[in-house]
Amino acid sequence: FVVFAVLERRSTHPVLELALLRGGPFTGWLLAALTTALGTVGVLVYLPTYLQGAGTFSAGDAGTLMLAMTLPVLAVPPLAGKLVNQGMSARLLITLAITLIAVGNAWMTVLAPDSRSVQLIGPLLLIGVGNGLAAALVDAQAMEHVAPERIGMASGLLNTARGGANALVLAVFGAGLITLMQ
Description:
By secondary structure, this protein is mainly alpha-helical. It has six helices and no strands. The protein has helices at about 1-10, 25-55, 60-85, 90-105, 115-145, 150-180. The radius of gyration is 19 Å and the shape is globular.
């Protein structure tokens, strides 16, 4: 990373202009993307396996239950876009999204091997609605704060950071689960 930063600062045409990361609105939206990844990916990837392995769910039942988290990601973004277009603060909505994800994850602490679908629908819906709000807001709001000639660079950074956060969360979450099981 240090070598990359040094080379980018010296380049007349950098792959990543490091000024994008010096704070400000773009960095805030980048952090929002990372935060939503932290709060959703582990649940999305590992919960179905837990429900089948530790719980009594079939693969079909676990998949059906996960719709409570994934369907809002399809339904909520148009609503979020409409609210922002009608004057609602995007900052308020992303704060609400992150709060919903955090509350949903905290609520997931009721999870036990004998948990039933009815106990998990609420937290999964909160996480899904929060993720849907974030999906609608982050990219558009982040790009709004970048010069037009840097949009491609900023979009690449945003998507790389999101993908990297997803991979890191999966690795850390998986390592934590293995440690707990041992």
